[in-house]
Structure of DUF2987 domain-containing protein:
Amino acid sequence: MRRYLIFILLCWPLWASAQKTQEAQEAQDWIAYRDAYRQMIWFEKYGKPKQFLQNHFRIRAREKGASTDGLRLSLNSKNIHQSLTLDVLGRAVFPFSKAAYDDNAELTLNRNASQFRSGAWVSIVTRADGVYAAADLRTACEQMLAYLQYAGAAAGKACVGVQFSYPRSDAAEVVFQTAGGASTALVVREGPAFPDDVQSGFRVVAYRFAAYPENGRIVSSSVPLAIAALLE
């Protein structure tokens, strides 16, 4: 019993220190700019084709109960104070700044940062006219897969399609048109904008390559919030 008490007394300072560190991390409302910069620069330096891809810095909820309504992101340092606009999916245009890097700036949230995941987020570029050649979407998916594999993810995956996402209030229609002009409406359902997200409530339309001819095009009646690659 005495040995057990001595063991506890010896280990207590280490446990208390670890507990304080964990509590400090859970209470933080900031993200190191330098860490985010290192993630984002991967895409900038990527030398293979990526004309159908775009890269954002994204904040997304870890759990379903963590709301992103009213979430605000800003870049702050001794000399910099800049608000960064988040879209409805939590994406922001990342400010590449040598001054912010040198100042060891912080990306600050108005919420507890431990409730959210943050980092680089690549998606497929949307078109204002809503018209997407089937061949381009296949190429976009392959570009996404190649980039993720370059970044050390998506091992063993293959491109099976893409997913269009819309606000719940958007009654957008998405159709596949063959080269001969015949049209087939794609099924609309409710789900997350990106396959791995915990938050749903969006209108999503999956275009799976195997279900349609290689030649043709996808026509969307409005601009989607995002286009995600379906990798399985």
Summary: The first strand starts at residue 30 and ends at 32.
